[in-house]
Amino acid sequence: MAFASKSPWVIHYDGSSCNGCDIEVLATLCPGFDGERFGVINTGNPKHADIFLVTGSVNEQNIGVIKEIYNQMLEPKVVVACGICACTGGVFHDCYNVLGGVDAAIPVDVYAPGCAVRPEQLIDAIVAGVAALDEKSAALKAARKGA
Amino acid sequence: MTLLTTLIGTLLFAVAGPVVGCLLAGLDRVISARMQGRVGPPVLQPYYDVRKLFEKERVSVNSVEGVYVACALLFALLAGGIFFSGGNLLMCVFVITLSSLFFIMAAYSTRSPYAEVGAARETLQVMSYEPMVLLMAVAFFQAANSFDVAAVLRLDHPIVCTIWLVFLGVLFILTIKLRKSPFDLALSHHAHQEIVRGVTTEMSGPVLGMVEIMHWCENVLFMGWIGMFFVWANPVSIVIAILIVALVYFLEIWIDNNFARVKWQFMFKSAWLVALIAGGVNVAFLAFL
Amino acid sequence: MEFSFGLIGFLIVFPLIVAAVLLFVRQEAPRRVIVCASGAVIAAASVILVVMNLGAGCTLMEFESMALDFVCTGISVAIAAVIIWFAVRYKNLLAGVLAAVQVVGTLILEFTFSHGIEVPYGLYFDSLSLLMTFIIGVVGSGICIYALGYMEDFQAHEPEGAPDRRPLFFALMFVFLSAMYVIVFSNNMEWMFTGWEVTTLCSFLLIGYTRTDEAIKNAFRQIVMNLAGGLGFLVALYCCALTVGTFSFYEFLVIGQNNPALTTLAVTALAFAGITKAAQMPFQTWLLGAMVAPTPTSALLHSSTMVKAGVFMLVKLAPVLHVSPAPSIMVMLVGGITFVLCSFMAISQSNAKRVLAYSTIANLGLICACAGVGTAEAVWAACFLILFHAVAKSLLFLCVGTAEHHIGSRDIEDMDLLFDRMPRLARFMMLGIMCMFIAPFGMLLAKWATLVSFVDTRQVALIVILAFGSAATFMFWAKWLGKLSGIAGEPENVEVTVKPTEWVALLIMACLLVLACVFLPLVSTVLVEPYVASVYGVLGQDISTDNLWLSSICVVIVVAVLFAGVGAKQKCRKVDVYLAGISRDNEGRAFQNSLSGTTQATTRNWYMESVFGEARIAPVGVVFNSLIMVVAFAVAFVVTPMVF
Questions:
Q1: DSSP category for residue C74
Q2: Most exposed residue of B19, B37, B240, C598, measured as fewest CB within 10 angstroms of its CB?
Q3: At residue A1, does pLDDT exceed 70?
Q4: Beta pairing, strands C598-600 & C590-592
């Protein structure tokens, strides 16, 4: 049994969001929805996090930051693109400096569209992310045994 | 003889300490959640967290951090073993300080700015609570006529009767030792991190898991210190002590949820003032009366 | 027995001969041979003396010599002449006056009062002397050997054409050792006084070695304070001559224990001499000023000689202090206040040598406090504090000295990454630091015993002082240790050029330290307990042997981790540290800032100047301790029955 799904710690990064999605992400983590029921904890440190919540599109300024945070997270890790901008670039997709959705920088596991993304949808996305986390954890364990 | 009992005590504590500490941490989170009007995680959530951490990839920023943390854990277990096998209280205090030192060195060794801030604050915390802890050991010696924790089992009345002032002082610094708000300067257990994650900023995966286990063991040890004040020759006293420990732990959770973090100046000065008044007066009282 | 006393004579005379030879050796190669060989001989002779007499009680030796008395007087006159010459040359009135007073006093004493007072047993040894012998012989000559490599580098760093005073330097080092042996083996207090003054003069010359303005200033501060202490010794000799009627230290102590009122003034004066030599507040400034000297001098002054002579005197006086309240309270309070305040001030220092100096003064304060308490347990603790402090401090000074030559600074902030740049040296330094302040190492066990003795004697003030002082001690050592332990990438290793003699000395100290910590229970049985038992009739160890062995096991674990466990290559993936943004140069802690420029993160240790600054704290100690001493002397004058 993998424990990754029982304690998904998340880290939240605002790429270039209009803050609509950010407010919803934080609302999801607030006592009202009580994410801690499922072991969700909001960490500020990529080294402690399992799930990377990104809001907003990727541009020239933030692509480095997103990559660095992603690289500093430990395997197994899952990326959730929160909101339509994070999924595809949204209404900003053809701005001169926008590169696209989060998948322009790092591999994304779960897409949660919406403008802004609603907490219910985010919870669904995290649950989907947790399943992916479990799979990756099992794969890592198998790889470690094989090695 | 002492060596053998200490060894057995340490082995037993290495098994029982983390189990009890884990449950304590789980209860802490549930009760905190209820105080905030939430449902909260399952009681075993800390266990899931640590198991997950041990499942994660093994990475490190340097080759020594993990070794230092392992030492910190080892000495925390030894301190618990010394205490719960009825060994020397002063020795227990010294060994747990050694454990803190290794923890601090682990943070410093990373050279991460955030970890260094945490390490410096942790050092300050040790300096803040150390006088009270030493005076607690002295007062214990005066009240029980021995540094051996087992001596309380031969007393006619609990030592808190004569050193209640010291007990209050220990209660004050207990908040620092348990890393509870308002004194969680070096490392906080909550989402509202202080300067990223203080001492543990660079610790990840299994190393962070070891740190969690160490905290469980430390918490059990410190609760043991609290219980020690209420045990005497009567076996019933153990039950009373456990009840009081539960009460004190609840009090700490309540404090944690109701007070905002203070600045280091306030923590340091108030802790020393409390040690000087509560510890000094009580020790003087026992020495001259 | 004959052989042992032969060895004592050898230990006193041999270093003098070596010193005389070294004075005329100007080449490096022969000097290296002479210093190494004679250092080894002195160390070996000391160890043989100690091993042959393990567990010895006080053993007196019949030895009397008018000629030696005159030699001692002659030396005193010579010392005064040298000091007055320097005082005239550098226009320092106070030093000249003090030296003149002292020499006149000595001559009057010698030719009027001391006639008819004979000391048939001129020399002696007991387990405490043997402990000191071990420290002087092994640690002291280790420092001499270390100085070879250090002084070569030192001379190379000097400007072109600077005079090479190394022959004098090495000669003084060996004279110092000889004088220390005189102090610990003399039963005749006049001889002891001569040794006492020789150490004062030697450290004066060593501190002023570089002849810079600062060095001269600090050297004179040292000589003024220690001459004042010497006057205290002289007062004690007068008291001995007038009221007690003996110059035998042994008899003096016995009389003091039985009839404390008679000796109160003499003991107070001797304790005052010990306090000045041990650099207790308000005299702490001379030891801080001594830092201008080359590092081996500091190491010698701090660990095995000079200040240890001061606390040796106080520990010898402990049984008398136990029964005479006035000097006892003086020594206890001066020591205790010095301990706590100097521990505080050490937090505010970033200069490594000043941190070490404050730590030395603080620990000497603790030893003083133990001596002032004067019970068997306190003396047991004091002996161990002396031993561990000597070894750990010499190791630390030697490490700092070597580091200074290779990283170009003695500031703790510049010791960043030393763990990578000088891996072996950093580990030695960390070992020394850990031994100074953390259980399970010896120093802390001694503090433990100290604490118990304070509790037993109900010294509440001292208990509180120890609790707060120890907490401060944790702070300043832990942050230094943290600075040393930082690792980032693979900086250039700069320790390949460290001289082999330096490594030898460092290794000796480190091994000695580990062995002493691990075998502390044995040292207690064969060296410390016999002394305590011979004076008090009880063993004095108040920590159960099981607990001592438990700490020994912990020491082994920590040392193994430090030297074997740490730094081994690991298989796991190496990652960068978190810098909250885009790293530009992660090992250098540089990151991309919000304006896309590069910012480098820097961290400094925490000095808490506003709480523990020298300017805030030092005056408190100076005023308090001066008052205490004045009151103690006043009381001593009143209670001592005077002949005149």
A1: H
A2: B37
A3: no
A4: antiparallel
Chain B residues in contact with C554 by the CB 8 A cut-off are 75, 78, 95, 98
Do C367 and C326 lie in a common domain? Answer: yes
User: What range does the domain containing A27 cover?
Assistant: 4-146
* A7 interfaces chain C, CB cutoff of 8 Å: no
Q: How confident is the model at residue C489 (pLDDT cuts 50, 70, 90)?
A: low
pLDDT at C204: 93
Band of pLDDT at residue B198, cut at 50, 70 and 90: confident
Residue C315 lies inside a defined structural domain of this protein:
no
DSSP state of C562: I
Query: Does residue C44 sit in the same domain as residue C22?
Result: yes
Listed residues C243, C277, C311: the one ending a domain? C277
Do C447 and B90 contact (CB within 8 A), yes or no? Answer: no
C84 shares a domain with C24: no
pLDDT of the residue at C260? 87
Q: How confident is the model at residue C61 (pLDDT cuts 50, 70, 90)?
A: confident
Structural domain boundaries enclosing C272: 65-106+189-277
Quick check: A47 contacting B, CB < 8 Å? yes
- Cβ count within 10 A of residue C178: 24
Say yes or no: C346 and C442 in one domain.
Answer: yes
Output the CA torsion B173→B176→B178→B182 (10° steps): 120
Tally the domains of chain A.
1
In a domain, C590, yes or no: no
pLDDT band at B285 (very low <50, low <70, confident <90, very high): very high
| pLDDT of A51 strictly over 80 | yes
With vertex at residue C12, the alpha carbon angle to CA C7 and CA C13, rounded to the nearest 5 degrees, is: 95
Instruction: Please measure the distance between the N-terminal and C-terminal CA atoms of chain A and give it in whole angstroms.
Output: 20
Minimal-distance CA residue of chain B relative to A2: B52
pLDDT band at residue C202, thresholds of 50, 70 and 90?
A: very high
Q: Are residues C434 and C561 in the same domain?
A: yes
- Give the helix ranges, DSSP H, for C90-140: 93-108, 127-134
CATH of the domain at A9: 3.40.50.12280
Average pLDDT of chain C? 89
Is it the case that residue B192 has pLDDT exceeding 60? no
Q: Identify the closest residue of chain A to B58 by CA–CA distance.
A: A74
Rounded to the nearest angstrom, the minimum Cα separation between A47 and chain B is 6
The total number of structural domains in chain B stands at 1
What Rg do the C-alpha atoms of chain C give, in angstroms?
24
Task: Assess contact for B134 and B93: CB atoms under 8 A.
Answer: yes
For chains A and B, count residue pairs whose Cβ atoms are closer than 8 Å: 74
- For residue C491, what pLDDT band results from cuts at 50, 70 and 90? low
CA separation, residue B120 to residues B126, C345, C458, C603 (Å): 10, 17, 35, 10
**C5 and C95 share a domain?**
no
* Domain extent at residue B7: 2-288
Name the A residues in 43-102 with CB < 8 Å from any C CB.
45-47, 64-65, 68, 71-72
pLDDT digits (tens, 9 = 90+) for C266-319: 999 999 999 999 999 899 999 999 888 888 998 888 888 889 999 999 999 999
Domain count, chain C: 3
Whole-number Å distance between alpha carbons of C270 and C258: 18
Are the Cβ atoms of C558 and B134 closer than 8 angstroms?
no
Domain contains C134: yes
Under an 8 A CB cutoff, do B63 and C567 touch?
A: yes
C221, C253, C277 — which closes off a domain?
C277
In a domain, C431, yes or no: yes
What contacts C119, CB < 8 A, 6 or more positions away? C64, C187, C188, C189, C246, C247, C248
Average model confidence (pLDDT) across chain B: 91
Q: Residue C644: is its pLDDT beyond 60?
A: no
Whether C43 and C73 map to the same domain: the answer is: no
Q: Which residue, chain included where needed, has tokens 């000595």?
A: C106
